[in-house]
Amino acid sequence: MDFSVDVSLLLTLCISCLFLFLGVKNFIWKNGNLPPGPRPLPILGNILDLRGDYVKTLMNFRRTYGDVCTIYLGSRPVILVTGYKAVKEVYVDRADDFLARGDMPSFDACFMNYGLIFTSDMHRWRELRRFSLSALRDFGMGKKSIEEKIQEEVACLVTELKKMKEAFFDPRQWLSKPPCNVIFSIMFGHREEYDNKELINVIKYVFQAFRTMSSPWGQLYEMFPGFMWYLPGGHQEIFKNLNKLQHFVEKKVKQNEKTLDPNNPRDYIDTFLIKMEKEKTDPHCEFTLRNLVCSTTQIFFAGIETMSNTLTYSFLHILKRPDILAKVHEEIDQVIGRNRAPMLQDRNKMPYTEAVIHELQRFVDLLPLGVPRKTTRDLKFRGYDIPKGMNVFPLLSSVLKDPSCFPFPSEFNPHNFLDENGEFKKNDAFMPLAAGKRTCLGEALVRMELFLFTVIILQSFTLKSLVSVEELDITPDVSGVGNLPKPYTISFIPR
């Protein structure tokens, strides 16, 4: 027997056990007075507690641990915040304390903290957001001109749907093309025909990346990014598709560079390029080619994903509720008729339709996990000590289904947004895309698009399902970062 080898092996085992013990102790107790939560395993965290329906499991922790609790995604502690009052504290009341962007490993791996939306660099975020809000307004966002672009796009869609001759088809791609073209016109200065290969590919890249992020593969990567990065598997689809989207944007930027007229900017990219030239002598300037490509890709991704999935899921819900569809048709006919294009100003005269659209967003629950934040300093939150840099997940699903805020939290019911007189009723708990200082850049555009897309399409068509209403399955196909509907078929029948 080689005694020296045995002693070395024994010593190695002892040291390893000691480090493991200290690591576990540090892992569980290092953060002191954190909120309570399920006890994690070393390295694996709460993976065993998160099996099954990911979002539902997180929501259920509220029953056991209250509105604020701690879970471990792998070795990473995360504070879950649930319910309207607690989430409002994070997003609105104490916005500056929670203003930094939380870790999102899938996006972080692709964008490396560059760009507007997925950066945790506060100086970068402030500079790029201020610029982007101004640039997007210059190219129509929030103005009458963007309303006209949306109307034109939906009119093109209506023409294409009529060509279908009442055939049944999966509506996802068709409902994605018009909002994609609206983003094209703002970011790139033009629209594309619906059979354009680039348009179709971009929609595919966004959908496949977002779907994979929301799948079990994506959830696994969020827990163990350092390990999963090197392994094959479905999670690699995220990076493959985000990289394709980024390469598409890089090509667009190069095209604009060749034809740029500093005195006549055509789109967001031109405006950014002009700003880059003006600021190029500043060593701390955030207006770089890397930030341009990443910001454009991120705005593009968020804009297409939000509208595409919301519209696709919304028409499934409308299809399942012919009684609600009939009432919307009645209000459209009374207020607008069938001979003129709906306008945004019609909203004030259409309380039922406005309530239905809000209820669709609430019930679709597009971003159930919310938009993660990080604490900007050491702080006290609801009696607990939260250190600087801690990830915080405000669960939007818990707000949109909060029984203290909505009379019918678990059912699709427009009366969640109607008063006793049938008038539209605002609700502060309606925050489908988060709230506060770091809310969605294009939230106003989303509201405009949802109203005009829904009303113009329903003005022109009634809807028919290939299966019975009872057979339509409205439960999500995947539920994680986002809620995505199961594939379905629909027929648009001209009225």
Automatic annotation (TrEMBL):
GO terms for cellular component: endoplasmic reticulum membrane. It is found in: Endoplasmic reticulum membrane; Microsome membrane. GO terms for molecular function: arachidonate epoxygenase activity; heme binding; iron ion binding; oxidoreductase activity, acting on paired donors, with incorporation or reduction of molecular oxygen, reduced flavin or flavoprotein as one donor, and incorporation of one atom of oxygen. Belongs to the cytochrome P450 family. GO terms for biological process: epoxygenase P450 pathway; xenobiotic metabolic process. Keywords: Endoplasmic reticulum, Heme, Iron, Membrane, Metal-binding, Microsome, Monooxygenase, Oxidoreductase. This is Cytochrome P450. It comes from Leptobrachium leishanense. Heme binds at C440. Its cofactor is heme. It is a peripheral membrane protein. InterPro entries: Cyt_P450, Cyt_P450_E_grp-I, Cyt_P450_E_grp-I_CYP2A-like, Cyt_P450_sf, Cytochrome_P450_fam2. Pfam families: p450 (PF00067).
